[in-house]
DNA sequence: ACCAGTTTTTACCATATGGTAAATGATGTC
DNA sequence: GACATCATTTACCATATGGTAAAAACTGGT
């Protein structure tokens, strides 16, 4: 739980009592590999914070191919926030790539904390923003070639390459698995 | 100026007096085509809101090629917000693709409004978030082929294709200008 | 209207990546 | 430990895109 506290403190000022209040609203969720945290077509009802493991966002394109849109490692929020806020159906799955441990806020608690903690609104928004910045900084750059994108992936997510199926990484980078396999071979 | 008011009202509650206060802090900036709103290497000092014209974010990669990272049309914020907030040097240029009219907040005003308007913080953050959502929704999808990406671009930015140099669009989509020219030809 | 400079198109070949298929390697279950 | 299942690698050819170069079409200034 300390991880969440650290994360919050790095963002805004909040005292010990308030932190306890925040923590009292959380639950710990253990997700097995491949389990979903939220699903496409459903309205997201909770916010997660990854303590252990790797999550991913993914969807199925019009050819039925499964595309990984992002990876989410520990110390990050896992939620489809636009649809969470708007109470609209998500268009992607949030799935555990490995066994995961996640701190969970229900939507009610996440929002009601704004009434009990002055400044929670600001902290909330900053957390979401940081999350978005991360995602965009770590997204593959479309103007780079596949090898460069894979090397950048290795830098951005040093511990992921061995833990995560090649197919997930390939679709994240916008190449086929065969291409990625070839790229791996050429690198060493 | 009405455009900004509409934008703000759609995000949060704010009364007429407060709107006037916001407006009193703004200035109108006319940018000629190709002029910069902010530059790589400099600390961004202001937030813009596009009234007319098209802006873009761009940078030079390690091969010296100019890459367009995003387009910003009217009714959107134009600012490198992470570096604006952190007082750190930007890594990209924000440049006018066409003659532009922009509403400008200085950093001081943008931040001080939080002291005079209750809830400005929340509005501010929501504006930035919306901006980020837009950008990510309208970004080319790396797993799609170049033609599909161009067709999506035409949908996302219906009025841009004729107004903006091919080279800008090409680097945004991650293809060479020659390829994009060929794609255009094959489409009709 | 002309010219210089820029942008866009076209052409040609080289190359990276995709598609299909099969072989190899890993993993978990009984 | 044997087997079925799934993930990864390899091979082969097809194709989209890149690179270089030149031609054609615009653009703005005089």
From TrEMBL, chains A, B:
Gene3D superfamilies: Jelly Rolls (2.60.120.10). InterPro entries: cNMP-bd_dom (IPR000595), cNMP-bd_dom_sf (IPR018490), RmlC-like_jellyroll (IPR014710). Residues 31-114 form the Cyclic nucleotide-binding domain. It holds the Pfam family cNMP_binding. This is Cyclic nucleotide-binding protein. It comes from Pedobacter antarcticus 4BY. The lineage of its organism: Bacteria, Pseudomonadati, Bacteroidota, Sphingobacteriia, Sphingobacteriales.
